[in-house]
Task: structure prediction
Amino acid sequence: MTFHVLDPTAEKTAPLGQAAPRLDTLKGKTVGFISNGKEGTKGFFRHLEQILREEYGVAKVVSRTKSNYSAPADAPIAAEIKQWDAMISGIGD
Amino acid sequence: MQLSSRTYEADSISAVQELYHSNGWTDGLPIVPPTADAVQACLDWVMMPPDQLIGIEPVRGLAITAEKLAVNAVMAGCLPMHFPVVVTAWTAMMQEPFLMHGATASTGGCAVLVVLNGPIRHEIGASGGFNALGNSDRATATIGRAIRLCLINLMDVRPGAIDRSTLGHPGKFSYCIAEDEEDSSWLPLHEQRGVERAASSVTVMAAGAPRQIMNEWTTKPEEILETFAAEMRANLRHYSIHPGNYALIIPKQLREHLQAARWTKTDIANFVHERARIHRREWADVGKGAVVRDRGDSVYPAMESPDQLLVVAAGGPAGGFGAVIPPWLGNKSHAVTLPMGVCIDCEPPKA
Result:
């Protein structure tokens, strides 16, 4: 007996945003950090900030923390991103 | 309207199983072959075209259609008459307060608890009696499984993909119960949450595994409920202090003592809200002293308000047992209750 059966997956992918242009250098740039608020992000981002400033010449680091670590970034944080040259999002698990 | 899903051909029932397992389209158990006829029967039952938009998942923007829910419902073993529940549960899950993406992706490993109320329970043979939290009946078993298969296949909530659960729990195979409304003087859950009693209704909650309690040695409501509250305090100490929706499953034996003393669900919620709370310093007793810091005197209630407690009458007739079902992660997800759609001047097709 031959079965004709249907694909159970969405078969369509969600619309994706466009990647921002890549930077030639981090020197003198502003980098934003978005933490999900978990404990593990604190030491990690502190260390990363030090590396970015000392080894890559990043001028400014802006740190933001989501109010709900399981939800997308709050609207005011998302609105701020366009002021940064680069953004790093991190989860503390 | 034609179904739009891609069709595969398989020479035998075994070949169907291998096709679905090898593509990662199952929960590891055998599936019912989702043929076009079976899927169309589900759509006919709810009187929806295949491309009916059930909702758009708020975080990733994925459109969920009736056809795709039906394919997965058939795979789970659902009959057409079960499908309206699957549609309503998924509609509820896509409401923003439920936070479906976070709840299903989290390392916390919760499952979607589905509670059925109203006439639909009788129409589909969903039982709120013996073994209510286990394999009580065909309807709740298959509906709960359909919820999970839809997550796996429509949202890529597969272990190690979107599903990042560290442990998960057995409710991730199926976690659906019906309230035993007839054997209770309490308001049914849906009515307690603002839906008309006569309406069939579905409540979804991002939920941890049930924590069973036992107290057969009293008839006093305060003592019975103290046992439930103690289990909630244990959850606050051992798992998470975030306040949110907890569910209490109260079977007949304990329920009769509470009802004989004329305690309503509201009375229960008020009492439990007062009793289910801990001081932050208690974490030091369970190995979490490092996070007490200078806030040891702070008090953490299990719920922000009594109405966050979902009291459900369910379970077999004998045994002084009950269960506390804790939230995935407090208020990060809120339980959602929706009435099921009805058509007052039409009826589903004859089976």
Q: What stands out?
A: The first strand of chain B starts at residue 7 and ends at 10. Chain B has two domains: 13-208+334-341, 210-325. The two ends of chain B are 21 Å apart (CA to CA).
